[in-house]
Specification:
Layout lengths: L8 E9 L7 E2 L5 E6 L4 E10 L5 E8 L2 E2 L5 E2 L14 E3 L3 E4 L4 E9 L8 E11 L6 H4 L4 E16 L7 E11 L2 E10 L8 E7 L5 E6 L10 E7 L6 E12 L2 E11 L1
Parallel strand pairs: 3-12
Antiparallel strand pairs: 1-12, 2-4, 4-10, 5-9, 5-11, 6-7, 8-10, 11-12, 13-14, 14-17, 15-16, 15-18, 18-19
């Protein structure tokens, strides 16, 4: 992640250079390609890459693994180093190519799942797509100083092996953060299963008399296996006091995980 950026990511790298227009590309549509496949199955797909500028752009594509954690950190290790990488299943043609002005290039790739019965659950990798940075002569650099922005897109390729794998989540810890009048409960959640999950967090509060005083929901977040994320629940409207807090993570498909806490709001 580290957590989202049009489903996956868009990094902005800022460098001091002359104030000329930078090469511009756009990856329209979804930044996640997700499929359920069987062993030995072959999938063919493509990624549209659009050149919005008035000149040709050279594009570089890199295939890497991808991991993230609840601290907001994202990692892109070399392909095949993550235990749940599917990078070795993916075949491509050119990883450097030129796109003419105001045209769209379809970057093709093929994915073939190995014939390995030990494969279970979710596997993934990520295509990192960026224009090759222009270089300027020393004389050009002396003309003016500005900021050039280069955007790198990430397109995840996620595959689920048939009906295999298991759902399992673990709430690592909870933290109550108070900033002025705002009170936020933060729950860090780790995916310790073998399947990608997108659980909804529901938090119910019960006061000292056993009365339910509030129900709070957050949006769903995708958590890949061996990765973690943070859920934030705004409790600013809840009165001071002691509560029992029941946290329920619901992915659907009968996958429910919960934890109960004593919570003091002051």
């Amino acid at each position: 992640m580290m957590n989202s950026f049009r489903s996956i990511l868009a990094f902005c790298f800022f460098v001091f250079t002359i104030s000329l227009q930078a090469a511009s590309i756009v990856v329209p549509g979804s930044l996640t390609h997700e499929n359920k496949i069987s062993l030995k199955q072959v999938l063919q797909n493509s990624i549209p890459i659009q050149n919005d500028s008035d000149k040709s752009v050279t594009v570089k594509v890199t295939l890497a693994d991808y991991l993230f954690n609840f601290k907001g950190e994202s990692y892109f290790p070399d392909q095949g180093t993550s235990p749940r990488s599917n990078a070795s299943w993916i075949k491509t043609n050119k990883m450097y190519f030129e796109i003419a002005p105001h045209t769209t290039y379809s970057f093709p790739y093929t994915l073939e799942a190995p014939n390995d019965p030990s494969l279970k659950g979710t596997y993934w990798s990520i295509f990192l797509i960026e224009p090759v940075e222009e270089t300027f002569s020393p004389a050009e650099k002396e003309q003016s100083l500005g900021v050039q922005t280069i955007i790198r897109y990430g397109v995840q390729v996620i595959t689920h092996i048939g009906q295999t794998g298991s759902y399992d989540l673990k709430i690592l810890n909870k933290t109550l953060v108070k900033e002025d009048e705002k009170k936020t409960l933060i729950l860090n959640v780790d995916n310790i299963g073998t399947l990608s999950q997108s659980p909804l967090l529901t938090l119910e509060l019960i006061d000292s008399l056993g009365k339910k005083v509030g129900r709070f929901e957050t949006s769903k977040q995708r958590i890949l296996p061996n990765c973690s994320t943070s859920y934030r629940v705004d409790l600013s409207t809840v009165s001071k006091g002691k509560y029992k807090a029941m946290a329920i993570l619901d992915h659907g498909e009968g996958a429910l995980f919960g934890a109960q806490y004593d919570l003091l709001l002051d």
